Amino acid sequence: MYRRNVLKVLLKSLILLIFGNSFVFSTPKKKLMTNEEWKQILTPEQFQILRGNGTEKPFSSNLNYEKREGEYLCIACNMKLFHSSMKYDSGTGWPSFFNCYEGNLKTRIDYKLLYPRVEYHCAGCEGHHGHLFNDGPKPTFKRYCNNGNVLKFITNI
Predict the structure, then answer these.
(1) Identified catalytic residue from 74, 77, 125, 145
(2) What are the two backbone dihedrals, phi and then psi, of residue 134, each rounded to the nearest 5 degrees?
(3) Are residues 84 and 112 in the same domain?
(4) What is the CATH number of the domain that holds 68?
């Protein structure tokens, strides 16, 4: 048993040296709090979107127009969700991405409009971010339609 654990640590260390930290330790750390705790750190609009599965008005987020290189993080838990190279202009009024960081978003079916849609949530805090559609550009043909007011943009300087 001890030998197996030592071998696991050595193998992970070797992979870490070769591929880098994000490849080995990609399991998100959960940040779960009560609604009262979330209300203390989120604005009312952010709380409604993240915890109440709400949607902001189209064209209401400045991130819809962001063109700089950088990372898009969950406003609640700082989990990296998207890189600027994954972003494109879908014309919908919400920041849209054709891909995300693997394992950092979780999906489930939403029937609020009576027909099934795929909604996605941050894997770190389980906050609602938007809906996933199959009308995006190549190579994935996916459109992660995100509420911009629950994203934080960090430039790569």
Answers:
(1) 145
(2) -100, 40
(3) yes
(4) 2.170.150.20
